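help with this record:
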Amino acid sequence: MACFPMLVELKDMPCLVVGGGQVALHKVKVLLDFGAQVTVVAPDILPELFGMEGVICRTKMLEEGDIKGQRLVVAATGDSECNRILSQACRREKIPLNVVDSPKDCSFFFPAYLKEGEVVCAFSSSGQSPVVTQYLKEQMRPVMTAQLGEVSRCLGELRKTVQQRPQTRRAAKRIYQEILRLSIELDRVPAEEEIGRILERCAENL
């Protein structure tokens, strides 16, 4: 069954990665991209992980108490017995767990994603086919430009102004659509005066 696509706030949230190899490094980078505070636990940890901002490395064997208080846990060990213990412990503590290359032990999956500012486009096959999700990601890459992230930020900042004016509040959707259309047409974020003209035109056409 397909998994429900829920976006989760991870900024400053504690996340645990069990394992210290290349796969663990990749997962750590993804979590850092969303502002998480990451702890890495493994007997052997890649030198690259030490000193990374937002990462605490603990060179030791995993203990069950290591999962306490974590927002989510990632198992990147390649050790099936360790993964089994982690899966049981996380289920008891109701902590989301991703076990690399073992969908049956996962309670959440890492999607393939594109991120520009606050705009995130994610693709998942519920752990079945990374090839499919990577294909979809590459197909979407030309659309997910830095400009789109900037337009989203601009529209977010504009919302308060629109909501405070009754004449524009009723035309809010049209205003946002017009600004997005103009941005795509100009290949840039519209200037303040251009946005002002859109606000006036949409309010007049109610």
About this structure: The two ends are 45 Å apart (CA to CA). The chain has seven helices and seven strands.
